[in-house]
C-alpha cells in the first residue's frame, strides 16, 4: 500500500496517527539539523519534517538528496506544526518522518511547477504532463469534469438519453472541411470524421429516441484561428415534438443549473433578442449585455448637413462612453488610432464631448450645431459627462468596428464583471447568408434548419430575408450554444437543398438516407449544441480554452508533445491504397 | 405545444383530464362506428378511441386514413377503458379523441415495428432509424445510457476525474492496425486514431491526475470477426500510487456496484485464478465458472498402456459430463462429430460411461481396465451416471478443443444460468507470447505492462515464462476488462522495448515522449480498460453487441445506412496531398 492518506487530507484531529504518504517533492528547506519537505499530490500539500534528533540518521541523509519533483513515499507520525499555515488545509500539522523511500527520481524540470511558472507556452505544451501538475491546469481539468458531470446528470434527470453516434462516417462536400480516413477493407474509399453528429441525431429523432444528448468530440480541418482546435467537444442535444419555445426553456434550465451549481450564482430570466435587434443595438450577434453602450443609429440625425463622410455612409452609428467627456485630446487621439488599426479597420472616428454644463464639443462642430449634437446624445442615450463615439460606412463593417470599440472600452472601464453572468437568447437568425466568394447563398446555420413558415414564400424572391427557426445562446459576449428547429419533411428538405445549389442527384448522393428517413414518419424536432471547451472556460472565468483541454494542439494543428501528425511508412500507405502527392 | 403528456404516462387517476398527445400510429382497428388507434412514443403506448357518437365526424373520417407509423397529434379526454389491458401501464385508460392533426405521413416501413419483427439483419441495418423504434433496440440503447451513467457517477464519487484525451494522435507500427488521417496543414503527414488512450493516461499519471477515467471511442482497423466493430467504446481507467491489489479492489467495487444497481443481484466475493490455473482447469483464460466440468489432466493415468494416440500426445485431458452416461451411442457419435468439426478441430474423442452400478464402459476398453478408468473418474471428478470425454494432442490445441466442448455441453445442459453473475479475476498473465508468424516475442498485453520483479531475471533466459502484473476481469466466460501495473521507469521501459525487438532509435521515435516523461518523476501506476459494448450486452443478458450500438457497422466495416466509407473527389484528395494507388 503506497499511502494511507492523500497529501490534502490530514488535519489537527489526526495528530499522533501513524501515516503513509506518497507524492512529489514540491520543495525542500535544509537547515542542517532539520529538513522540511513539501510533499504534493493532486489533493494538496503536506509538510514533512526530518529532524536529526527524532528521525533515523540514514533517513535524514537520504532526505538531503531529494530534488524537486522526486516521487517519494514516507511513513511517519502526524504532529502539531509549530508555525501554522492558515493558507493550506493541512497547515496545522506536519509529518515527523521515520521512513523514506524514493519511488522515482526526477531530473530538473524545464520550468517551475508553480502556479506562476517561468515556462512559456511552447515549452509547457511540449512537457504538457508537467504543466498538468500545476494547479491552474490541474484545477481546470477537474473543473471541466465537474461541469460535464453536472450536464450529464441534469439532462439524464430530464429524460435525455446519451447515445453514442459513430466517428467513422461519410464525407460531405458542404461546409467546413472534413478530416478523412482511408479504409483498408474498402479499397479506395474513405470515412470522414464528424464535424457534428447532426444527421445522426436527427435520425435518432426519426427513430423515436425523443430526447437525445451526447458529449462528443467533433472535428474540423480548417485553418486554426487563435483558440480553435481541430478536435473540439460539443454537448449535442436533440428533442422531438418540440417548438423553439420548448428548446429554449429546456436549455435555459440546463444553463441556469450550471451557473447555480457550479458558480453558486443565481441569475434572473434569460433575455431574448432577435438577430436584427442584436445587430442594430450591439453590431454583433453575440452581444455582451452586462453593460450598456447600446448603438444609436444617427443616419436621420446626421445626414442633413454638409458633412460628406456621413452623407455618403450607409450607416452612421454611435455609442456613449460613460464619463468619457473628461478624456484628454491625447486619450481621444489614441482611441481614434485604436479604431484605425487594421484589426478594426475604421477610417476615422467622430466624437462628441457631452459637457457637464449641458453643452457639446465635437470634432465636427464645423458641420453640426448644439441642437444636432443634443439629438445625437438623445439617440445614443449619452448623459452629461459622457463621450459619444461615432463611426460611419458600410453597414456590416461599421457595426463590426463599433462593436469592437464597445467591447474594448468596456474592458478598459471594467464594465465586464467576471462575477456576473448575463445569458441571452438571440433568435430569428437569417436562414441564408450571401457568400461573396462563391457568389451564392449558404445556409447560415446548416442545411437542415427550418425556415419560418411565414417566410417560406420569400425564398424565391428575397432569400436573404427569410428567417430561420434558429437561435444562439450567448453568455457574456460569447456564443456558447446554437441550434434550430429542423426541417422534418422530405419536400422542404429538397427545396432547401435546391436553394443551396445542390442538384437533386447531389442531394440524394449526400443526404439520401436522411430524406428517405423523413418518409417513414419523422416527428417535428429540433436541438442545440454547446461548445464544451468554451463553456467551461467561460464558467471558469478564463479567456483561453487551452487550459481546459488536457492535450491541446497548437495553431498548426500539431501536438508538439507526441510530435503528431507524423510520417507513416510506405507499407502502411500501400495497405491503405494511397500514395503521397506532394 | 405538441403534447401535455407522453404516451406512457396516463393512469386511471388522470380520468377526465383534457390531454394532448403526440406519437406514432402503432396500429389501428377500424370497426366502422369506432376506431381504435395505438399511439406509441419512447415511453409507451396509449389507446385512442374515435367514436362516431362522441367524436366530430371529420375527425373520424381523418382517423380512417391513418396508416402505420404516421406521426400524429391528438387532443382528447382521458376516459376509463372498457376492456382493461393489464400488460401495459396505461391499460386502464384510453383517450376519447376530438382533434387530430397528422404531423407527418409515413410510407409502409420495410419491416414491422414490433418486438418480433419480420425484418432480417441487413434490412434492419439499412433502416436502422426504424429498427431503433422497436423496443428491443430502443431499450438496449436506454440501458447502455443507464450503465454509462452508473459508471461515471460511481467513479466520480470514488475521486476519478474524466479527462478527454485526443483522437488525433500519432501512428504506431506496433500492435493492431491504426486508422490514419491525412493532415491538410502538415503536408504528407498523418494523424492516427487511437487504438486506446494508453500513453495519454499514463502521461496523466505522470502529470499527477492520480485517478483518471474516460468513456471513450477507440479504433482498430483489422479484419472484423463476428461481433467486432472498427470503432468501439472503452471505460478506460488509470490510478497512481497503486499495486495490483488496489486496482482489483477498486474495480471489483465498480463491477459489484453495476451488477447490484442494474441487475439488482447481489454477488459474493470475486474469485481469483492465475492464468496457468485457468488454462489447466478450463483450457481457457476467460473461463465461465458458473458451472464445473473442470479439466482433469490424465497423462499419468493414461500413458502407461499400449494406446499410442494417448502415448504420443503432449496432453491427455478429460471432463465429466453430468448425467452423460445415459447418452445413446448415436448421441455420443454426434458429440464426436461435433468436436471433429473444423471450427473445433479435434481428431477424435475417447469417452467413458460411468455406470450407475460403479462399473465403467469406455471406447478404449481394449487398452484400459476398470481400475484405470476409475482413476480417470477420480481425476475428472466424475460421479456414477456421468460421461467422461477425453481429448488428446498438442497442449494449446487440445485445451482449446476441450474448452469449446465444455461450453457447448454447458449450453445444451442449461448450466449457463443467465440470472447468475460469476465474476473472476484472472491474474499473472505471461508478459510475452511467442508469435509463430514473425518468429519473435510480442507483448501479450502491451509494451507498457510491467514484469513481476521476481521474474525479470528470466527475461534473457526463458522470456516465455516471465509473468506480468497483468489481470483480466472475466464475467460468465467473457473478458470484460483487462489491465496491468505499468512500467514507470525509463530503464525498464527501454529493456522491454529491447526485448520486443525495437532498436533504441525506433523506441525513441515512437515512444520517446513517454520515456522522457518517466525521467521527470513518474509515480507507480496501473489501470484497466473495460469494453463497454460487451459489458452492456452481458449485463443486458444478450450475446451480440450490435443491438447496444446505435449505428453499428457490418462485417466489412461499412455503415450501410449512410453508405460509408465512400469515394471522395479529386479536389479533396489533392488538398490532402494524396492520391489513390489501387
Automatic annotation (TrEMBL), chains A, B:
Keywords assigned: Aminoacyl-tRNA synthetase, ATP-binding, Cytoplasm, Ligase, Nucleotide-binding, Protein biosynthesis
Species in which this protein is naturally found: Aquimarina algiphila
EC number from the UniProt entry: 6.1.1.12
Subcellular location: Cytoplasm
InterPro entries tied to this protein: Aa-tRNA-synt_II, aa-tRNA-synth_II, aa-tRNA-synth_II/BPL/LPL, Asp-tRNA-ligase_1, Asp-tRNA-ligase_1_N, Asp/Asn-tRNA-synth_IIb, AspRS_core, GAD-like_sf
A single GO BP: aspartyl-tRNA aminoacylation
Binding positions (ATP): 220-222, 229, 479, 531-534
Membrane-crossing segments per the record: none
NCBIfam families, per the entry: aspS_bact, PRK00476.1
One annotated GO molecular function: ATP binding
Source species taxonomy: Bacteria, Pseudomonadati, Bacteroidota, Flavobacteriia, Flavobacteriales
Region of interest (Aspartate), residue spans: 198-201
UniProt keyword annotation of GTP-binding present: no
Assembly, per entry: Homodimer.
Name of the protein in question: Aspartate--tRNA ligase
Function: Catalyzes the attachment of L-aspartate to tRNA(Asp) in a two-step reaction: L-aspartate is first activated by ATP to form Asp-AMP and then transferred to the acceptor end of tRNA(Asp).
Pfam families the record matches: GAD (PF02938), tRNA-synt_2 (PF00152), tRNA_anti-codon (PF01336)
